[in-house]
Amino acid sequence: MFAMSELALVSSKEARLKARAEAGDSRARAALKLRDDPSRLLSAVQIGVTLAGALPQFARQADEAAFAIVIVLTTYLSLVFCELVRNLIAMAAPETIASLAVKPMSFIATLAYPAVAVLRFSTEAILAVIGLHRVAKEQVTDEEILHLIEEGAAKGAIGRDEQEMIAGVLELPDRNLRSIMTPLEGEIPEIKSGGR
């Protein structure tokens, strides 16, 4: 659950979360807040994963054959449900999962604040040493917008005329004024005011 929450929060589209938040969804608002503090989010996730990973250690009280079966079964179930299925669920509905998971994640981050603070500080210190401490978020490029518009047109959500119009708008800053302003050929008809 913890890693699925992490993947969903990271994969979720900020614009979709903002739209949900503006519509009154408090969980989407909390998800946006947690996304803005990734080291807190990742530290809380790792604490949850570590605590969940400690549970199989209690199985060591059984004899060695039973222990081996428990380990193999636990590993299999962990790979299937805790890695593969949860990743696919998080990728299929990231905003929904992020909105549902934000309250438990925030609770764990608050409950385990000292450990989260130490992990956060350590992670940010290492990132600072390797020069990645204050990496700015990537900006959306024209190519990404055109790709999304192309996908929307292929699925029928956007018409061809709309696709061409948006592509034209994105090209405007790269064109000079002379190429946009086309002189009229021939005479301009006289427009009379008043009567017929």
Summarize the entry for a quick read:
By secondary structure, the chain is mostly helical. The chain is built from ten helices and no strands.
Would you mind describing this structure in some detail?
- By secondary structure, the chain is mainly alpha-helical.
- Helix content is 71%, strand content 0%.
- The protein is built from ten helices and no strands.
- The protein has helices at 2-11, 14-22, 26-35, 38-54, 64-92, 94-111, 113-129, 142-154, 160-171, 177-180.
- The longest helix is centred in the middle third of the chain and has 29 residues, at 64-92.
- The chain is elongated, with a radius of gyration of 27 Å.
- The N and C termini lie far apart (76 Å).
Q: How many angstroms does the end-to-end distance come to?
A: 76 Å
Averaged pLDDT, please? Answer: 76
What low-confidence regions span 5 or more consecutive residues with pLDDT below 50? none
**Would you count the extended β strands for me?**
0
Number of helices, where a helix is a run of at least 4 consecutive DSSP H or I residues: 10
Quaternary structure annotation: single chain
The radius of gyration is 27 Å
Q: Per the principal axes of the C-alpha atoms, what is the gross shape? A: elongated
Our estimate of the beta-strand percent is under 5%
Order of helices and strands: HHHHHHHHHH
Structural class: mainly alpha
- The helix content, as a percent range, equals over 70%
